[in-house]
Fold this sequence. Notes:
heterodimer, A: mainly beta, Immunoglobulin-like, six-stranded mixed sheet, 11 strands, 0% helix, globular, B: Immunoglobulin-like, seven-stranded mixed sheet, four-stranded antiparallel sheet, 1 helix, 49% strand
Amino acid sequence: SQQGEEDPQALSIQEGENATMNCSYKTSINNLQWYRQNSGRGLVHLILIRSNEREKHSGRLRVTLDTSKKSSSLLITASRAADTASYFCATVKKTTDSWGKLQFGAGTQVVVTP
Amino acid sequence: NAGVTQTPKFRVLKTGQSMTLLCAQDMNHEYMYWYRQDPGMGLRLIHYSVGEGTTAKGEVPDGYNVSRLKKQNFLLGLESAAPSQTSVYFCASSLLAGGHTGELFFGEGSRLTVL
């Protein structure tokens, strides 16, 4: 079963607008990561936020994490046509061993029109 | 620096045929993974390896086998392909365990169709 679930499933915006997508998860996590996938390509890591962090920034990306609500959001500011892609959250459950398996959600498909 | 390279990129099989997907990474990563991606289901972990000579089952291992004879290579085998194995397969690698440092590096994918 999927640990993380993204919302919305699809998002269509115009260039210059902000895009926000959310990820909810079920169990306590070690960290949460966001990845981007362009059509027909592999996934690319965007940002990682640890369970003791609340917010992280990377360029036009802002990620928040609310462990009490078991949710995270990814905000892309001033979107560009090149941001058109699917975005996935991946969570790492807290476990007693050193191995941390990533579990991916089904993704949010973002389309940015010029 | 090629990163993670998967071969082949496309393959069509008939039910019952066998094949091997090859993943090669040139980043000296310890950890390697095979995922499958199906529409609406995100990525699911098939098998993974925490180092040369080791393999372990992920969440959907049935029908697949893997080998990691060399640190840089991770092979995924289908002994008797079934239509349910039609999917896009992604190989990934990471320097350390994903749970601690994060970043997985992905290949470009291998699209497999089983008729």
